[in-house]
Amino acid sequence: METQIRNQFETGTKTAPVSLKRKWPDKLRVIFSAVVKVKGALWGGIFVSMMILCAIGAQWISPGDPNAQDIVHRFADPSLKHLLGTDYLGRDILSRIIYGCRIAVLVAFGAVTISSIIGVLLGVAAGYNEGKKIDYLIIWLFDIVRSFPQIILALAIVAVLGPSLFNVVVALAFTAFPFYGRVARAQTLSVKESDYVKAGEAMGLERRKIILRHITPNILAPVIVCLGMDMATMIIWESGLSFLGLGVRPPTASWGIMLRNGYKYIQTSAWMILWPAVAIAIAMIAFSLFSEGLRIALDPKERER
Amino acid sequence: MLKYIIKRTLWMIPTLIGVLIILFSLTYLMPGDPASVMLGPRATPELVAELNSRLHLDRSMPVRLGYYLVGVLEGDLGISVWSGHKVSSLIAEALPHTVLLAVSSLGIAAFIGILLGAFAAIRRDSPVGGIVTIVSLLGVAMPDFVAALLLMLVFCIHIPLLPALGAGTEGGPVNMATHLILPATALGIGWVGYLSRLMRESMMDVLDSDYIRTARAFAVPKSSIVYRYALKNAVIPSISVIGLGVGKLLGGAVFVEIIFSRPGLGKLIVDAVYARDFPVVQGGILVATVLFVLANLIADISYAFVDPRIQYE
Amino acid sequence: MSEPLLEVSNLTLDYNLGTRKMRALDKVSFSLDKGEVLGVAGESGCGKSTLGLAIIRLLPRVAEISRGEVIFEGTDLLKLSEEQMDRKIRGQKITMIFQNPQNALNPVFKIETQMVDILRVQNKYKNPGTQKRRRDFRQEAIERLKITGIADAEARISNYPFEFSGGMKQRVMIGMALSSGTSLLLADEATTALDVTIEAQINRLITDLASQYGTSILYISHNLGVLSDVADYIMIMYAGRVFEMGRTDDVFGNPRHPYSAALLESLPGHQAKGNRLLSIPGFVPPLDRLPAGCSFHPRCRFAEEMCRQQAPPLIEVSKGHWSACLLDQKRGRQKWQWI
Q: Helix or strand or coil: residue C80?
């Protein structure tokens, strides 16, 4: 789905002109009301908020300590004491899931923020200087990084730098920035031909002001949608890398690590695999629905419905 | 047409050069001394010195880059630090398994997904539409490795139906096929969901278009309209997506191969990462990347065959 | 010459959009003889395109015809099955060309392929059982292109649609739509999307070919200038109803309905230099909330109490000239001067 949206945006979509002058609460209200209208997006938004809550307040929400071992009661089935059962060291799975949520959200937000900022800056610079050397150079950079199958590049970077939370964020950010770059560039190309930009140029506004005040706000819409989709992807990759042992280091609870342990003991306990899988599934669906709603909210054509 | 192919192929060259440069510079990112890291616990000063000179790690950067590029062009990707075998032969051994996995999962997924989506668009009121939505949601919800784990849990452990590990090469084609079912399904589920949904939307758009209306106004037979006119337009987004998807597939293959212990490029790379066998990692990624780039090239070219407008952009 | 070619009586059509029901056509009635050109005029949304689609039965699923008849060459088209429409009517007796030639042809197939497909269908139904070869169809397609004035037809037929200009694409459509078997051509804003210079050429082409083949035309357009050129008769529609109908000279020279008069007065040509152009106040009502009585009365400068209470019927107010205005019917010939 993310590639479909990216494809659509890589040819540049028409977005309604946005001026930075309009108040933020006003814009948020528009987005909020539109998102609420699409029921799927509403549920997605609810679950995303729940995840963020878990991330911030894991220590208060979680029923127990994710690292507290209880060997006597390992591989326990779900019970009142351990709502989702225990793992191979007797640790409460539910607590680990909640703390794992924190890791997932941290990595996703971190990687997405870094890659989108870098990507957008480069993309706008390229788009505004279309046809000149710097444009070709930036496109070349994008194409090179995009040539790598993403997970493999992230794998290699983490392998070289050593597994840790920070390195995972860096590696994921590095593999993702070209996508934001291409979307930003395509949008810049279509926006810079618009009348309001030409009017600004005709009035003699400096380049920098044009880029900041007029171009950047208007290219943000597809970028924001990509952000939503990307977060879902980042969560998967963090889990994947951790599953391979190349991500967050144990004993930190990450869904990927939980799956890794579950895989080792697949013949003994189904719960160790099931619950992280469910958590990942819910997270994926939530982010997907939410960003789909965001896309509908930000597309001026659909807003009319 | 030819011009377009040549133009696209030529653009690959600077891109690949950039890829090589990045792969090359990965060694510089390693904290500590590369040779010691690679040798790990076996590192004695003599072995380290020997590795340093063999891998030219003690020379200056331009020289190392030169050795690297020349080696790659000759097809020499180095020697595995861990096993001593040539990297290129290790890869040559592993690659066919990955290709088999990728092709079978993508092929089946594409076939099922496109047909499903087209059918859901044509018969708007049938339950097929609901099936498409559910399957696509499933595909979104479960990334490859999660699907692989769940499939293994259900079909290997709880209902011991299918083999869990290995490629089954010893047992002949049928055995290989049974070993292929679960991995291919795990990889393919996401695709069936995505493609069928994409195809359905695309087909519905196309069926509403002006040129289909023209065909109907001139009484062109319904079957011709759907299977020729509409389909050819509607598959266009799917084809471009499939090209991009090979990259995702290669990534997913990594996990599926590890989980099901299948030999393949993905498992080779990850095992090499665990063993700090850097030449193998470098060579494996290079091959994976080249494959990815080639797949994109082929996808772009077939896209141009289907949609003749592309060449002129 | 007694039976009209096409006779539409009381055609009423709704669009069912779930919560809303839009009345797109309300008791539309008219007739068209062989060889005549009837222009259908009106603002956007008045139902003229819907009328064309209803005749050839290419309406979207949400459209529902609640009453009326469309009698073509003695048969009620509304009672025919899809299969019968395909077999006997569409693409042969009745053809339609649309507004936007840019999108009217399939972008991924060559012009030749699309034309041959259509010719093959036409041949299948006209002469069932004959086996023509692809080469023959190709030749016929080239002939059609030549007739519509496309230079170098032999070579250009192998092009893709994006290699043709808008005007050329419309010529292709005309070549397919007008042939010796066509009795009725529905032209829906056929030249609206084209340059003004091309527009004149294409309209000339349409009328020449039509008179050559004896084809009647239902020419749908909001452009009164074009209609005054090509149409013998003209029908003015508003919000799904027919307001005035008659010979073009009669209607343009002596409009009996205030709305027609307003349309004419808003044309640049109709005002002496220096006078203001008319712009009709208000806007076209949404089709699910039409005003009571005469649907135009809220905007009409001359409206009176009875206009609000009674929906005017379409009555022949003088020979061959019909109008749906109560004031006109009750008071006789008026000069509706808006400004």
A: coil
